[in-house]
Amino acid sequence: MTEVNWGGNLRYRAEAIQRPASLDELREIVAAAEQIQVLGSRHSFNAIADGEQLVSLAGLPADVVVEDGAVSCNAGLTYGELAVELDRRGLALHNLASLPHISVAGAIATGTHGSGDGNGNLATAVRAVELLTSTGDVVRLARGDDDFDGVVVGLGAVCAVTRVTLDVRPAFEIRQQVFEGLSWEALDEHFDAITAAGYSVSAFTRWGAAVDAVWVKSRDAVTELFDARPATLERHPIIGLDPVNATPQLGVPGPWWDRLPHFRLGFTPSNGEEIQSEYLLPREHARAAFAVMRGLADQIAPILQICEIRTIAADGLWMSPMYERDTVALHFTWVRDQEAVERAVGLLEDALAPFDPRPHWGKVFRSAPPYPRGADFLALRDRYDPRGAFRNAWFSAATAPQRAR
């Protein structure tokens, strides 16, 4: 039986997933493979991690080590697994994505993010990486090294990332409050104040008459948000679904790892029931993009479950969608209808084109624009993987604009 991804919209070509228990075993597997991809938690909705052979790092020892204000661990760990270890030691990461179930290396490689005006994506916490190249070399790069900013968001095409070192901070509590029915007029007029209302802020909308809900994750209590009303019951990000899988709300303080994600660690929500796409635009285009999206509401409504609006700080990682620009993200959760989603994605990319959108590398999209350091990234990839073992057809198509630059 062939393996499938999280969303169930992709069947991998490999007949089996190899699971080495040591670095030496991994080296042997990679050296013998003509073409291979490292598979994380399968939370990509395209073929970025598809390959003739697939290998998982989940079987490598976790080997969590804390020292000098950082944590290092096996890159195959999930954020949930790492969070439990950090919390036990009174430590935290700066942010988490909506799901704590995703793998550390996979999230980093695709520029995956949480939310917050002052928060960079998850890859910005990387202090160092250890890499296994297709020629069998083990390389360690640290922040400040020449190739570091190019390797971190590597799209799985440079090497196998075997170990990561992440910045940590003291553990902290945070609370979560949901506000409902925010008017578009309030969002347009007060967008900066709304996104600054908490440590992490997400607006959920179906692009109707009002914004359905705004989730504010904050250190201090937030009791009002312009013309929105505080929810009196816990909510699910997808309007109308049972909130049993969602992290606690109603302003009740709790640990960072149980508030920053939208979904609880002990559950696996939405597995196989959705397809996702996401576009990341310069923050200054937010209001204009909202107006365009509201004009498309009727056309995408039949397949849209929810759209999440959030902000992320700029960074200097070459292939990060937030490279050198503060960003507003439009994240779409669709019903699982691949053909309909691909049509909707084409419509969105055409409509958002004036705003210079960059797609999330792990979601469904039609095309990616050239990146300022895209050609440098391809040259770096050729140096680290001269025999092309880690590249696949998806990578060649997705990075074509980088070659043309």
Automatic annotation (TrEMBL):
Coiled coil: none annotated. Keywords: Oxidoreductase. Transmembrane segments: none annotated. InterPro entries: ALO_C (IPR007173), FAD-bd_PCMH (IPR016166), FAD-bd_PCMH-like_sf (IPR036318), FAD-bd_PCMH_sub1 (IPR016167), FAD-bd_PCMH_sub2 (IPR016169), FAD_lactone_oxidase-like (IPR010031), Oxid_FAD_bind_N (IPR006094), Vanillyl_alc_oxidase_C-sub2 (IPR016171). This is FAD-binding protein. It comes from Solirubrobacter ginsenosidimutans. One of its GO terms (cellular component) is membrane. One of its GO terms (molecular function) is D-arabinono-1,4-lactone oxidase activity. SUPFAM superfamilies: FAD-binding/transporter-associated domain-like (SSF56176). Pfam families: ALO, FAD_binding_4. The keyword Oxidoreductase applies. It comes from the Bacteria. Residues 10-171 form the FAD-binding PCMH-type domain.
